[in-house]
Amino acid sequence: MHLNRLITEQDVDMIYVIGPGHGGPGLVAHTYLEGSYTETYPHIERNRDGMRQLFRQFSWPYGVPSHVAPETPGSIHEGGELGYSLSHAFGAAFDNPDLVVACIVGDGEAETGALATSWHSNKFLNPARDGAVLPILHLNGFKIANPTLLARIGKDELTDLMHGYGYEPHFVEGHEPMKMHQALAASLDTCMARIRSIQKEARQSGNTTRPRWPMIVFRTPKGWTGPKVVDGKPVEGTWRAHQVPITDFDKPGHLQILEDWLRSYRHEELFDEHGKFLDELAALAPTGRRRMGANPHANGGLLLKPLEMPHFRDFAEEVKSPGDHKAEATRVLGKFLREVMRKNMATANFRLFGPDETASNRLEAVYEASGKAWMAEVEEVDENLSPDGRVMEVLSEHQCQGWLEGYLLTGRHGLFSCYEAFIHIIDSMFNQHAKWLKTTRTIAWRAPVASLNYLLTSHVWHQDHNGFSHQDPGFIDHVANKKSEVVRIYLPPDANCLLSVADHCLRSRQYVNLIIAGKQPDWQWLAMDEAVRHCAAGAGIWSWAGQGEDDPDVVMACAGDAPTVETLAAVMLLRDFEPDIRIRVVNVVDLMSLEPNEEHPHGMDDDQFDELFTRDRPVIFAFHGYPGVVHKLTYRRHNHDNIHVRGYKEEGTTTTAFDMMVLNNLDRFQLALDAINRIPRFEHLRQSAAHDYWTGIEKHRLYVSEHGRDMPGIRDWQWKGAK
């Protein structure tokens, strides 16, 4: 009601973000009263029958969820999992200069680490080009069964806290509804005037000094205006008011308490005899797209404009023959992203997000197009900081994820670059976004949004200097568990494949795209035309790497840049060990292509899979992540029993890159031994092969321990095709 008054009186373009997800009933009710709910769901009419259906479907099987779910018009934030309201709100405000995001932060949610950090989002909000966020911290004092921290510190301490975060708090406190209405209205007017003043000064004078943004602290009793006492115990103003204040309606008196509570709102003064909201009250709401339930920013696909894309082939690595040189794949990608940034500066609809790792991940070429967004103080030693920057760096994966989600859900594009091991920090946030995408695919009025794109680099196989804490490829497993219509997982083996995959992902809609690529110099395998064909197929035979592939003794398969190197090195070892060996090399770039096509739209049918992996030959599969993922994806395949997967098995330390492979039995010597041990006609060679293996591993370990680096034969290895 109060925000609607602001919208109508001042023609404010406003959306809401509701942190306390159990506030869902309030948002459903408000969109119903303003009419946007009925426009979205015509069977929920604005009369007695429609209201009955609205109530009947709420929090009911196959009905409407109890949170501010995707089914709720105007929502971009479900709120069931706490902590992300402010980061979503700021993500929505970036590059939306006329938008105001009213963000309700619950005092329970305010205790989460993600929310506590997100107050600092104001150091990245430029009033000259961005919209505004109005945080409303609702202090009702209690969570499910405990008091809340911010409600139990003094007003001075809370004021100091908010000042420290960079806000000017306006307190609205009390328990008398009419007085609180007047106080809240006055505070909202004051805050809105301050927002307009900040924006006017920045846009007219070009002043880039970080302002102190207004926010509201709204303190009311828990369960305000609800039952005061139930079964002789206080409810209003206590933790007992959380969510369901009255239960067990077979108990004497409970139904009467409920009726008295509902009648206290004097519905007869709000609706006519047919259950229709009174016209004079309905007229108070905004109209058309100014209604928060109908604002297109909250259905971002309606506003989505395709990115203007450079030709990714223009950034290709020249590969004259497979493995003829090394390159840093992500550095090559950085030049492509620089041009993506440049080409979309005018539309201001692309940003790059990352936790202080853009340069570390070799993407620093983007700084040639745009600096890093920064509204805090700047010192002489700083580089690439700019109030107008479009690279978002803050050492909080939660904020990067939350900002990007808010940015995407309001109709823009982005990419999140992160160290592979630490993307797990946002596992649960990814869950929630994937659930949102799954649900919205079945909601006809929700227009598709740009995909959420992850680039994971500094990965497990090149974290030798950082050690065990930085070695974890398990995000692959996490993503692979989600619905097939939502997730895509790519493991490009070289820079040209990475370019092809990135171009595809940035053009896609309504997916979560996971790309994993190393940043260290590594061998380049495919010329651009070959890379494009390979990525389009998802997996393919590398004929140049095999011999006798039409009737192979063994299939040497690989997925991931580092496992690809070890596989090809193993092929060379096998050729040297037994020159007449017949080998087929298969590289997988689209991991979900391994799954049957009935399970995933990118999956190969059985005939396609058998053409690559055969029906009956041993398959030695070198995999970037945990081996179980490949087994899970292929367990229904004809040849599954012959697929032997090597991957990460939770062995790590500070050591050399190749020793990481040895520790996890993913090294070239192990792969070659696996092949010999599984080729029936080489049974007589297994003992000597095992002897050679252990001899080689012992030499390796002694050399690494003595010299602190890999043996020359490993460091200087380069692919040589069969003669």
Observed structural traits:
single chain; 723 residues; alpha/beta; five-stranded parallel sheet
Rg over C-alpha atoms, rounded to the nearest angstrom: 29 Å
Proportion in helices? 25-40%
Strand order of the largest sheet: 12-9-13-14-16-15
Estimated structural class: alpha/beta
Number of strands: 22
pLDDT < 50 stretches: none
- Work out the strand percent: 5-15%
Mean pLDDT: 96
The shape, in one word, is: elongated
* Annotation field: number of helices: 23
Question: Strand count, sense and closure of the main sheet?
Answer: 6 strands, parallel
End-to-end Cα distance, whole Å, is 79 Å
Task: Summarize this entry quickly.
By secondary structure, the protein is an alpha/beta fold.
Describe the structure.
With 723 residues, the protein is an alpha/beta fold. Helices cover 35% and strands 14% of the residues. The protein is built from 23 helices and 22 strands. The strands form six sheets. Strands 12-9-13-14-16-15 form a six-stranded parallel beta sheet, sandwiched between helices. Strands 1-2-3-5-4 form a five-stranded parallel beta sheet, with helices on both faces. The protein has a five-stranded mixed beta sheet with strand order 18-20-19-21-22, sandwiched between helices. Helix 8 links the parallel strand 4 and strand 5. Helix 5 crosses helix 12. The longest helix is centred in the N-terminal third of the chain and has 29 residues. The model has no long low-confidence stretch (mean pLDDT 96).
